């Protein structure tokens, strides 16, 4: 079982109050990480309008992520990408029953504050938007709302968890319709997890301390992760997922679920594709069901996609050394 | 008596936590039995008891409808199999659900628990909370309630027993062999509710 409680008992985001005759507490690690647990085996879909959010909900999305532009359009438009219009986020919150997430810029504490005040269910500190501070991510323990962060390797994931992230998504290269980078990064994380697990199993504390130094993260978090042999929070795959088979493949690599960005609403058969990707994610262990899901889409309707080797902008590198 | 066969509906949501909690409950009670993920009608037909975990009720409902699991669970309810529905699982078991903001919902439900549900009754994720509650009627005087975008019960039929309230809101019910809670015992490490459920299966078995 993945642990629910994190460090930092004195986090500013934790709120104690009396409700009627009950003493309550909000913003705890159990509630933040627990929320992410409820999303497991699900698909979170990027949306830009109320109509897309409703299509996503009907198709069986476990949550929607509101953006101003889909990642592939962010890539095309250039310029500075910022958090979505609050008015659109609110309209979407009022029209679907599933959780609504929204993205803020890396390090942009006040965009995150605004999203928390808007009462979105989860905040994504995302490399899809233009970073505000690449050297310092948001100190997420200060917030009552949970955060999800991207990571390309174990060190990045653990540093984000140490800052208070309640969920991780292994990064791909957003807006490319190409799943290759997501695959590489999940495999990276898995390989590193196996390595520290074997060090832990061998009882070599000295080596585990050098891992903590190498990853620039606390020993206790490295030790906890090594003992589990997996990330201590829910981990979804993201970046470039376009087809049911893409989603099912990433599930086989040990992800707890998937984020789909441009892959659905940049395709010409968005509605069928949204349903098909949900089916494939749920029944990924059954190749026949994934085939049925794959049959629901037409490859000629898939977004064209990009070769990730020749990109001017590699969003995945944003904030990754911090 | 052979061991009891308990399933956790593994369509979507926090399945692993419920498997762990149910296994530990069996162990603490010293009972023989197995606990597995179930997804297909065939797997469900062999069960003595089922946990429907937390998650998104719209997703769990839609997908269990697709592969025929929903129909099979209905048959098992009719045959008296105990079910423990947690949060989304309780919504699934209910006859009627509406959302606090969006209003009346037309989502696939198991249509058994004679209760009316209000989804997201306490608000959005930021309003999710922990609080100690009690279920005195089943001998649990103090229980750590973990409420995550939790539903509440706004109306109950005459066959429904109210097990717990948070202020004026109903948060746990029992009807026949079916129990439902708004909160997540599987996230707490307190096994008393899972043990209560396992005992219910044992009595029926």
What can you tell me about this protein's structure?
The complex is a heterodimer of chains A (322) and B (205). Chain A has a domain at 30-177 and 234-298: Aldolase class I (TIM Barrel, Alpha-Beta Barrel), CATH 3.20.20. Chain A is built from 13 helices and 10 strands. Chain A has helices at residues 29-37, 50-59, 71-77, 86-95, 109-118, 154-162, 180-201, 205-215, 219-228, 244-252, 262-265, 270-282, 287-295; strands at 15-19, 22-26, 43-47, 63-66, 100-105, 122-126, 147-151, 167-170, 234-237, 257-260. In chain A, the strands form 2 sheets. Chain A has an 8-stranded parallel barrel with strand order 3-4-5-6-7-8-9-10, surrounded by 8 helices. A two-stranded antiparallel ribbon of chain A has the order 1-2. The longest helix of chain A is centred in the middle third of the chain and has 22 residues, at 180-201. The model of chain A has no long low-confidence stretch (mean pLDDT 92). With 205 residues, chain B is an alpha/beta fold. Chain B has one domain (4-204): Class I glutamine amidotransferase (GATase) domain (Rossmann fold, 3-Layer(aba) Sandwich). Chain B has helices spanning 15-29, 41-45, 57-66, 69-78, 88-93, 192-204; strands spanning 4-9, 33-38, 49-52, 83-86, 94-99, 103-104, 113-119, 129-135, 140-147, 152-156, 161-166, 169-175, 178-181. In chain B, the strands form 3 sheets. Chain B has a 7-stranded mixed β-sheet. In chain B, β1 (4-9), α1 and β2 (33-38) form a beta-alpha-beta unit. Chain B is globular and about 45 Å long. The termini of chain B are close together. Chains A and B meet through β2, α1, α4 and α12 of A and α1, α3 and β8 of B. β2 of chain A pairs antiparallel with β8 (129-135) of chain B.
């Amino acid at each position: 079982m993945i642990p629910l409680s994190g460090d930092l008992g004195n986090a500013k985001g934790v709120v104690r109050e009396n409700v009627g005759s009950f003493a309550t507490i909000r913003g705890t690690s159990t509630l933040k990480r627990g929320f992410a647990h409820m999303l497991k085996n699900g698909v979170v879909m990027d949306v830009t309008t109320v109509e897309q959010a409703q299509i996503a909900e009907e198709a069986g999305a476990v949550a929607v992520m509101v953006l101003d532009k889909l990642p592939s359009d962010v890539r095309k438009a250039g310029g500075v990408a910022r958090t979505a219009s609050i008015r659109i986020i609110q309209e979407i919150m009022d029209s679907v029953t599933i959780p609504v997430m929204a993205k803020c810029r890396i390090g942009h504490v006040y965009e995150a504050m605004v999203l928390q005040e808007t009462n979105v269910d989860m905040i994504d500190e995302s490399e899809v938007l233009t970073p505000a501070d690449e050297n310092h991510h948001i100190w997420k323990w200060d917030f009552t709302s949970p955060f999800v962060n991207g990571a390309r390797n174990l060190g990045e994931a653990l540093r984000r968890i140490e800052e208070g992230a309640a969920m991780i998504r292994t990064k791909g290269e957003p807006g490319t319709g190409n799943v290759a980078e997501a695959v590489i990064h999940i495999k990276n994380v898995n390989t590193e997890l196996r390595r520290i697990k074997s060090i832990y199993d061998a009882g070599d504390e000295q080596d585990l301390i050098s891992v903590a130094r190498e990853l620039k993260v606390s020993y206790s978090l490295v030790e906890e992760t090594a003992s589990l042999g997996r990330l201590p929070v829910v981990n979804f795959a993201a970046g470039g997922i376009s087809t049911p088979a893409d989603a099912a493949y990433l599930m086989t690599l040990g992800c707890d679920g998937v984020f789909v960005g441009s892959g659905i609403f940049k395709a010409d058969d968005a509605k069928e594709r949204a349903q098909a990707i949900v089916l494939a994610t749920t029944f990924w262990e059954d190749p026949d069901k994934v085939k049925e899901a794959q049959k629901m889409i037409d490859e000629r309707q898939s977004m064209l996609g990009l070769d990730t080797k020749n990109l001017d902008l590699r969003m995945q590198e944003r904030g990754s050394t911090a | 008596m052979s061991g009891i066969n308990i399933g956790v509906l593994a369509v979507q949501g926090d399945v692993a936590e419920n498997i762990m909690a149910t296994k530990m409950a069996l162990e603490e009670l010293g009972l023989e039995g197995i606990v597995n993920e179930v997804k297909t009608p065939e797997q469900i037909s062999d069960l003595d008891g089922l946990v429907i975990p937390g998650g998104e009720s719209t997703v769990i409902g839609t997908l269990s409808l697709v592969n025929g699991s929903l129909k099979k669970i209905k048959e098992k309810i009719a045959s008296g199999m105990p079910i423990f529905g947690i949060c989304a699982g309780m919504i699934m078991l209910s006859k009627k659900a509406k959302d606090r903001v969006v209003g009346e919902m037309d989502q696939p439900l198991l249509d058994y628990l004679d209760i009316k549900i209000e989804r997201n009754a306490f608000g959005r994720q930021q309003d999710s909370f922990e609080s100690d509650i009690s279920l005195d009627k089943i001998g649990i005087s103090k229980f750590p309630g973990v409420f995550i975008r939790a539903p509440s019960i706004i109306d109950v039929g005459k066959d429904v027993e109210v097990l717990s309230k948070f202020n004026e809101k109903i948060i746990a019910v029992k009807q026949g062999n079916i129990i439902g809670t708004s909160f997540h015992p599987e996230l707490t490490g307190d096994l008393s509710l899972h043990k209560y459920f396992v005992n219910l299966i044992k009595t029926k078995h």
